[in-house]
Write a structure and sequence with these properties.
Length: 499
C-alpha cells in the first residue's frame, strides 16, 4: 500500500473515499467541519437526522458531487467519546472494508490534530485497521471473490514527515501480519512442516538479510531432540527444525541476541490422546506461534532494524499411527532431561523444550516463545489477551510494553516454583501433563521454564488470540487467523534496536 501525507486542507485531497472519525455521541471533528462547509451543511444535516452516528464500526457515506476533490466522504464511528488506538483501528477497518467493497482503491483519512493521541500514533492505528480489516481468507474458493486491498492511503494532517515514517513502518508490519494469517489459515494438508520450511527458505532468499537452515527427521534424531522426535513420529509428514538468523551489520546492542521460538504444530489431532472431533479442524492453527515468528523475521529484515535475532521454529504434525508415541512413553530431551509423555496432546511443550534449549545453545541471550499452548488460556482470557509468563521481570516487562503499544495484547500471569510439583513424574525427571485439571497454562509455562537454560526467558500462550472462532467485534471481523504476535515482535525488535 502506497502512503502519502498531506498537510493541505482536506477539501483538495483526491481519494475515492475521504474518512473522518466520529465519536459517540456524534460530533464533527475540526477537519470535518471544514468539509461540512464545502458540502453546504450536508454532514450537519446527517448528524441532526440521526443518520451519522458514532457507534463502533458504523460507516456513513456521502457523495460529494464535485464539491470536494474526493468522490465521497465517510464518517467512521469510534464508539465512545475518547479516541484510543484500538477504537481507531476498528473504525479504520470498517471504513476501509466498506470502501473496498464499493470498489475504492484510494482512501484518505483525516488525522485529528486536537486528539489526545499524537498524530503518528493515530496514523499507525489507522494503517493497522486499513491493512488488517479488509483481509479475507477464502483463497480456496474456486471463484476468488475476496475484496482487493486498498492501494493508496492519504493521511491528512500536520507533522507529515514523522507521520509518514510511522505509517509506512506500520503498513510493512501489518502486511507481514496478513502473510502470517495466510500461513495459519492454510489447511493442514497444504501447510505441512516441509511446506512451512520452504516458505521460510523463500523468505530468506527474497530478503537477502536472513540465513535459513532446517534440520530434517534424521538430523533431529541425531542431534538428540527426543522430545520433538516423539511428537513427530506418528505422522507421515516429516518434521523440520527451521531456523532463520538475522545478524545486522551494526546492532544497537551487540551483546544482545534474542531467540524467538514459535510452536508450529501444522495439525494437532492430539495424537493417541485423540482430541474430540468437535472443531478439531481449528487445530490447523496450532502453528500460529511459528508462523508469527517467521513473518516477524520478514518484517524486521524489511525494516532493517539493528537487532540480532535467531528464530527457531520446531514444525511437525501431531498424529496417531503405528509409530506414534504412546501415553507413558519416556523420552530424553535435547537438554538431557527425561520426560514421561503422560498425554500426547500436551505436545507443544515437548517440541518447545527442544527448540528453547537449541536456541539457548545456539547463543540466544534472551528468549521469547510464542505458542498456541493450552485450552486453559482460552477459558481464562478468551480471544483478547495472550497469557504472558517470564523468569525475569525486566525482560517480561519489555514484552508487556511492546504488546500494549502494538495492539497484540498480553497480560502477565504468575509462575511460582510450587507449581512445579505437578510436572514431577514418578518415573522420569518430568511429565508433560498432570491429571489435576488446574492452572494448565501455568503448568505448561513451568514445564517450559525447565528447558529455557540460563538467562531471561518469556512465554506467550496465544491459543486464544492467534485464531478466532468468530469475529471479535473490532478490526478482526471474521473467524480465522489474526496474525497475533507479528506486530508485537516487530515492536519489541524496534525497542531493542534503540540503544
Ligand atoms: N494446541 C492445543 C491447545 C489449544 C487449545 C490451542 C485450543 C488452541 C485452541 C494443545 O496442544 C493442547 O492440546 N493442550 C492441551 C494440554 C493438556 C492435554 C495438558 C489442553 O490445553 O487441553
Ligand atoms: Mn495438543
Ligand atoms: Zn497443540
Amino acid at each position: 500500500m502506497e502512503i502519502d501525507v498531506v498537510e493541505a486542507p482536506p477539501g483538495g485531497v483526491e481519494a475515492d473515499v475521504l474518512v473522518f472519525p466520529v465519536p459517540e455521541p456524534a460530533a464533527l471533528p475540526a477537519g470535518a467541519q471544514q468539509l461540512d462547509r464545502l458540502l453546504e451543511g450536508g454532514l450537519t444535516r446527517l448528524v441532526e437526522d440521526g443518520e451519522l452516528r458514532g457507534e463502533t464500526g458504523r460507516v456513513t457515506l456521502l457523495h460529494t458531487d464535485g464539491r470536494l476533490a474526493a468522490r465521497r466522504v465517510a464518517a467512521a464511528g469510534v464508539g465512545g467519546d475518547t479516541v484510543d488506538a484500538d477504537r481507531l483501528r476498528t473504525a479504520a477497518a470498517a471504513a476501509a472494508t466498506r470502501a473496498a467493497d464499493i470498489g475504492a482503491r484510494a482512501v484518505a483519512w483525516l488525522v485529528d490534530p486536537e486528539s489526545a493521541l499524537p498524530s503518528a500514533e493515530q496514523a499507525r492505528a489507522v494503517v493497522d485497521g486499513v491493512v488488517l480489516g479488509p483481509y479475507e481468507a477464502g483463497r480456496w474458493k474456486t471463484e476468488d471473490e475476496r475484496r482487493p486491498p486498498i492501494e493508496r492511503l492519504v493521511l491528512c494532517g500536520p507533522g507529515a514527515a514523522a507521520v509518514a515514517e510511522e505509517a509506512r513502518r506500520a503498513a510493512a508490519v501489518a502486511s507481514w501480519a496478513n502473510r502470517c494469517r495466510d500461513l495459519v489459515n492454510a489447511p493442514g494438508n497444504e501447510m505441512t512442516p516441509e511446506r512451512l520450511a520452504a516458505w521460510a527458505e523463500e523468505l530468506a532468499a527474497e530478503s537477502g538479510a536472513l540465513r535459513f537452515e532446517a534440520l530434517g527427521p534424521e538430523e533431529i534424531r541425531a542431534a538428540g531432540m527426543g522430545a520433538l522426535e516423539a511428537v513427530a513420529r506418528g505422522s507421515h509428514n516429516a518434521p523440520r527444525l527451521i531456523t532463520l538468523a538475522y545478524e545486522p551489520d551494526s546492532p544497537a546492542r551487540p551483546e544482545l541476541r534474542v531467540g524467538l521460538v514459535g510452536k508450529a504444530i501444522t495439525f494437532d489431532s492430539g495424537g493417541l490422546s485423540l482430541k474430540p472431533s468437535l472443531r478439531m479442524e481449528e487445530m490447523k492453527s496450532d502453528m500460529g506461534g511459528g508462523a508469527a515468528v517467521l513473518a516477524a523475521m520478514g518484517a524486521v529484515a524489511e525494516l532493517e532494524l539493528p537487532v540480532r535475532l535467531l528464530a527457531v521454529v520446531p514444525a511437525c504434525e501431531n498424529m496417531p499411527g503405528g509409530h506414534a508415541t504412546r501415553p507413558g512413553d519416556i523420552v530424553t530431551a535435547l537438554s538431557g532431561k527425561t520426560i514421561e509423555i503422560a498425554n500426547t496432546d500436551a505436545e507443544g511443550r515437548l517440541i518447545l523444550a527442544d527448540a528453547l534449549w537449541f536456541a539457548r545453545e545456539s547463543g540466544a541471550t534472551h528468549l521469547l516463545d510464542l505458542a498456541t499452548l493450552t485450552g486453559g488460556i482460552v477459558i481464562a482470557m478468551g480471544d483478547l489477551y495472550a497469557g504472558l509468563f517470564g523468569n525475569d521481570d525486566a525482560w517480561t516487562a519489555e514484552i508487556e510494553a511492546a504488546a500494549s503499544a502494538s495492539g497484540d495484547r498480553a497480560w502477565r500471569l504468575p509462575l511460582h516454583e510450587r507449581y512445579g510439583r505437578y510436572n514431577d513424574s514418578y518415573f522420569a525427571d518430568l511429565k508433560n501433563s498432570s491429571d489435576y485439571k488446574q492452572a494448565s497454562p501455568i503448568l505448561a509455562a513451568a514445564f517450559l521454564a525447565e528447558f529455557a537454560g540460563e538467562g531471561p526467558w518469556a512465554h506467550l500462550d496465544i491459543a486464544g488470540t492467534a485464531y478466532l472462532e468468530r469475529g471479535r467485534g473490532d478490526y478482526y471481523t471474521d473467524l480465522g487467523a489474526t496474525g497475533y504476535g507479528v506486530r508485537l515482535l516487530a515492536e519489541l525488535a524496534r525497542r531493542l534496536a534503540t540503544p
